[in-house]
Amino acid sequence: MKQKSVTLETAKWLRKRRFNEPVVAHYDVNGKWCETTPDGEPECWNSPSHDASPRRKVYAAPDLATAQQWVREKKHFDVLVDREYFCGKVGKYYAKVIRLRDGVMSETGKYRAYERALEAGILKALRSM
Q1: pTM of the model
Q2: Cα(113)–Cα(4) distance, rounded to whole angstroms?
């Protein structure tokens, strides 16, 4: 099963919150998807050739599980995805974001896909730091 990576918006928020873990994919400054070469450098930089430090022009794009684990371990927010049930019928997914420091909980909107709810929960945790 292929892991789904975070979107560009979440990647920008991860960078803003100092995410610094090794990943296999990046977004460049224009939002173009870049795979990582065997030496660990992204294949496309999309930056001027005179720029001495192109690494600051990319956003790390971890898979959702890695982002969820990083948010829990480094920023102390737990993101849990649940599904609504009503009268024996299964509904849509939503995420609960719990700040582990004091137990404050909030919820995201409802989504048809588990991955979308997880991404929304991660993004909500990153925005509330």
Answers
A1: 0.83
A2: 12
